[in-house]
Amino acid sequence: MSLRPSVLFVLLGVLPIASTEAAAQTVTERGFADAALYVFPQDAPNDPVNVVGDALVREEVFVKPAAWIQFAAGLDVRANTHDQVEDEWRIDFTDRGVKRPRLSIRRASATLTRGPLTVDIGKQFIRWGKTDIVTPTDRFAPRDFLNVVDSEFLGVTGVRVAVQAASNTFDVAWVPFFTPSRVPLLNQRWTAVPEAAADIPLVDDTAQLPERSQVGVRWSHVATAFEYALSFFDGLNNLPNIDAAVQTVPPAVLVTRIYPRIRTYGADVAVPTRWFTLKGEAAYFTSSSPRTDEYVLYVAQIERQSGEWVIVGGYAGEAVTARRATLTFAPDRGMTRSIVGRASYTIDPIRSVAFETAVRQTGDGFYAKAEYSQARGQHWRATVMSVVIGGQPDDFLGQYSHNSHVEATLRYSF
Amino acid sequence: MSNRIAALIGACRWRLRARCKIDAGRRFQGRQGEAESLAPQILQRASRDSRHIVPVLAVAVFAAFSPVADNARQIVDEAQKRSDAKSQRYEGLLQVFDAKGRISDKRWMFERLGSHGDSKAVLRFTAPAEVKGVALLVVNHPDRASDQWMWTPAIERDRRIALQDRSTRFFGTDFSFEDLEERDVNQYDYSLAGEEAIDGAACWKIVSTPKEAKSSQYTRSIVWVRKDNYAFARIENYAKEQPLRRLNYSDIQNVQGIWTARQLEMADLRRGSRTKLTLDKLEYNVPLKDESFTLQALRRQ
Questions:
Q1: d(CA A343, CA A356)
Q2: Which of A313, A404, A331 is nearest to A367 (CA)?
Q3: Chain A neighbours among B 56-115 (CB < 8 Å)?
Q4: A367 close to A395: Cβ distance less than 8 angstroms
Q5: Residue A21 lies in a domain
Q6: CA distance A308 to chain B (A)
Q7: Which residue from B59, B68, B125, B289 has the highest number of Cβ atoms inside 10 Å of its Cβ?
Q8: Which residues pair with A62 in a beta bridge?
Q9: Is B127 on the interface with A (CB under 8 A)?
């Protein structure tokens, strides 16, 4: 869906008007140009391409015409050598396409502040929860999973109202336009296909994108020795159930993405102790859909900074209370029943290394990332990352065992 | 006493418990004009109760000709009093030199509302480009260690910096997270260790020890306070007997009536690295609002 003129008017047209009225407005911007090269040593059954190039230019501008209002706008421009970006040159606002848009509005929002009240209107990022790698309560944060182990968040369009009263924050989000997570392309390696079925084409039979709105409330409390939050979400899972139908002429499998209605009841907590910070997060997912599982996702992790190290380690678990779905694309659940960890080390002001891993408790699947990053001057940064994935074909992580790869990225920040 | 965010601005700031004490001190100083030679113990007496301001003033005139104070606590009180401001803003240039002398530059915008340990501060990086928007909210408390949250725009999330993590370096600089907070004067014990000149300026040398050892990475600090203007000249922080960090103050100027170091250099004595902070566009008592120092405000870019 392309940009709605009315939305553009509201979100961007107001900006110059307000700006001209402002005497002491502040304008800040940030952005980067990124060139990445992915090298996959192994062929995937459905994808023999071993080298993928990707380019992204991102610019974000923040204008504050007065103390009580701020506008934010961001634009992404993309290119890709492996057909992961749409060919069409149009400005995309909703980010609902199968492929990444060539030109997209990453964010376009206005933030109004009055006393303890903050209202964000427009396309924005809403992040809930405290844990890393798996975040069960983060329900307004769809992701781009064209690369399953290197995903990026997508903005959502809606209204967020936050009221901070002493140590309590009440957060209400209303998102009338649904933004699903972008799932892997069916003809590429991140859609895992058994070798025996590699010759049968998978056809995207479009998605059933519900038009209903989503709402969530969160109450968080910051105490002297700990902080916690309770949240409720009533909306849609941004990760789909999959319907697969066989088509005989021509032979193909028709794949339909269905985004079920869900409710989640969540809680997250962070407790600093003398040795580390203990973080926990859990959400109970229920659904009125007869073909959607009900389950609890939970994460317990510890976090510690020591010297130049930042270390996060924990366990992500799942308890299914009603098993109904047959086929889903659910990286959040796929990462559960796993030991997860992340460690980063700052070598010096310009160099750092980082490691990340998730290992299924059964040993059936794992991934491990190692990253080295070095800056040069004030603008350049080069990053080399190695990702190793292994395991059994019937495991969420293990199914991507052909997708171990090396990634090199050169970024110019401005 | 360890180095704090106040250390970044040229004078450690500890909050006096009773507001009337500060007010009384101000009135006292105002009537005396240049009060730099006044003995701190007299100021302390003056500030005990503002109702007794008139008789105390008479004593203070006499005290102006008496020898300098030898009470460490009162020197620190006086240094705090002289750096009192409702708010502060500056643009900081951070130059990080590692042991091999390589430099990386960072810039931040710093705003603080309140003073002397009962304050809130936000610092937001403005350069280099890759860290633009990264921000730290520090909420200082008079009776305990501060609360700190860091905002990372790349992942759109804030993270509370736990107390035990505050000995780590702040974003690749030689300041630790703990160095970015203020603490109340009452959280420390003081003793006078003598007198010593720093960069040619005569100073009192004061040893401060945190009353609650668990809340600080430093077991003690040595502070040099200049006799001529009560500005801080140097702070050396120790863990047991090992010196960890040394903060030197230089280019001390009178900004809106407050003697402020415009250049600070923090040295990590174990790593051999140092970070130089230069304060540009420094202003005191700028109009800032309380709602700009909240978690909600932190996520505004």
A1: 6
A2: A404
A3: 96, 98, 102, 104-105
A4: no
A5: no
A6: 7
A7: B125
A8: A28, A72
A9: yes
Mean predicted confidence (pLDDT) in B292-301 = 86
Contact across the interface for B129 and A378, Cβ inside 8 Å? yes
A401 Cα to chain B: minimum distance (Å): 27
pTM for this one?
0.83
Residue A386 forms part of a structural domain: yes
Residue A375 in domain: yes
Residue B201: CB partners within 8 Å, gap ≥ 6?
A: B226, B227, B228, B233
Residue type, A140: F
pLDDT band at B143 (very low <50, low <70, confident <90, very high): confident
Determine contact, residues A333/A326, Cβ cutoff 8 Å: no
Query: How close, in Å, is residue B170 to chain A by CA atoms?
Result: 10
The residue among A154, A219, A305 with the most chain B CBs within 10 A of its CB, best to mutate, is A305
**pLDDT of B118:** 82
User: In terms of DSSP bridges, do strands A91-92 and A103-114 run parallel, antiparallel, or are they unpaired?
Assistant: parallel
- Cis status of the peptide bond prior to B153, with omega within 30 of 0: no
CA distance A107 to A7: 12
Q: What is the pLDDT of residue B163?
A: 83
Number of domain units in chain A: 1
A26 touches chain B (CB under 8 A): no
Please report where in the chains the tokens 């709105």 appear, as a residue: A213
> CA A322 to CA A213: how far, in whole Å?
25
Summarised one tens digit per residue, pLDDT across range A110-167 is 999 998 999 999 999 999 999 988 999 999 999 999 999 999 999 999 999 999 988 8
How many whole angstroms separate alpha carbon A203 and alpha carbon B176? 55
Residue A393: which domain range? Answer: 337-414
Q: What domains, with CATH codes, occur in chain B?
A: 87-182+286-298 (2.50.20.10)
Mean pLDDT along residues A377-402 = 94
Query: DSSP for B150-190?
Result: EEETTTTEEEE--GGGTTSBSTTSS-BTGGG----GGGEEE
Note the pLDDT of residue B21. Answer: 36
- Residue A193 falls inside a structural domain: no
